[in-house]
## 1
Amino acid sequence: MNAKTVDVALIGGGIMSATLGALIKQLQPDWSIQVFERLGEVAQESSNAWNNAGTGHAGLCELNYMPQAPDGSVEASKAVAINEQFQVSLQFWAYMVAAKMLDAPTSFINSTPHMTFVWGQDNVEYLRKRFTVLKDEPLFAGMEYSEDPAVIGTWTPLLMDGRTGNEPIAATRITSGTDVDYGALTRQLLNYITANGATLSTGKQVTSLTQLKNGHWKIKLRDSVGNTPHQLTAKFVFVGAGGGALSLLQSAGIPEAKGFGGFPISGQFLRTTNPAIVARHQAKVYGKASVGAPPMSVPHLDTRVVDGEKSLLFGPFAGFTPKFLKEGSWFDLPGSIRANNILPMVAVGATNLDLIKYLVGEVVASPEKKLNALREFFPDAQHEDWELITAGQRVQVMKKDPKKVGVLQFGTEVISAADGTIAGLLGASPGASVSVPVMLDVLQRCFPHDFKKWEPEITKMIPSFGTRLSDNPDVAKKSFAASAKALKLSK
């Protein structure tokens, strides 16, 4: 390894590196690819099935993509944009399945209706407005709305089990939603690229990145067990290391990474595998976030399909730890502080007191409080049916802003050097759901000349590439139908 030079080095064995590797293998199969993962197996951090909720984020049920403005209006552009991105991912996965580069689609994606559920008159009025705005959007075709408990009970009985009183409730449902096992998908994508010449090295911790005079990158690493040092050079480096990406981009010294900080948020879920309970809920049901809660902490009761077995998850319950990775270091947060990002980080803390208050409340929340939160969705929930599991770490982006000293940004952020030799990804949800369009963005930024010649091949894999499906209802309908057929999804 010490004398080796590769075309592409992918740091991190998660969904982003796997997706980028698969795209490159399709577009430039002669390029050599080296993947590094610090743990003993791939997909063990945020991509692991139990470290996320498995939602195919398409804006169908996530209310945080359509917040209500101060004047009471509701606007759909962000939800539509997220859905457009998810359609790109669906098309690529469908192409890979049809070409037998991935396993049977049910091994990583399954049809699961996406619902929203709210209570209280103000929330009902908001959801009614949201439905009115979305129902005629091509990518949201088939969405249903009801304020009738009997109707909602037919959609998913669990929501109505034990519910009494006259409080107004409302729900939306769309049957074209999905549950995705991103861990299984990651493993399959990496199996594909390694079967076609890529090299995967697990148990290898990348410690620093240094650019050489010829523009290539010297990568220093060590064995996670034994500390044996190694190094190699790469013409292009992608840092897809989740919460570990910030420190590596900082070590690279690229000016584009200056001013960025990270705010780690941990999470927990309640999970049940009780067949009688699981059978009464076939949906991902999202509610409204608490005041101050980050978007990733919107409460939801989800059907999950992992290794062919169904279960239900409820949460997430947010928490705080200075670790940037579930298997990270207690010094991750303090070690990320630099002279160029300390002011944005302090400013974010000073302007997000609601978030800090929310996190403190979540950290000290009792088991009874967690169960009561679940009972707002499932009134008959009992302690003995549910276990508490720890989810993956999420690191929210803090950065400078033209109008403010610092802002807390939710979502994903691509950072790439001006010369296109290195790029990395920071942030969290919708992350994995939009991995394909995000990685296409990386390729377009870093290989602008090659990208032009790749576009015909990209269009074969992703027929809607370069267009907006939401601008043409007929094309949107046919596109989803084609993806749904290949992936065995409900239309």
## 2
Amino acid sequence: MRLLVLQTIITVSNYEYIFIFYFGQNASIHYEVRATGTLSTAPIDVGDHVPYGTVVAPGVLASYHQHLFSLRIDRALEGYKNSLVVEESVPMRFPHDANPFGVGYVAESSIIEKEPGLDLDHS
């Protein structure tokens, strides 16, 4: 099988965003988004673990943050056996020991079973 690959790269601040469409001869469509760049990090006490980031080295925390993209596509193009996963950012309780500055959040994923109206309120 051959693929037609359409790709664009956009540089924004410390990231390069790579957007790729794969079109197959069998009418399949795959979409991929990649981000490369330098992590934004913060100091943390060695041995500490928090729910709002990943320890990337002793004493170095990479806080969770968002890269938001919008893509509209009919998921039935390839048939109805596809699935769509939506990942939402949910604020952590504040004030809380694990969220001392009120900026922490966790990500929750869910599979969309039917076409919904999604909450687009960015607040």
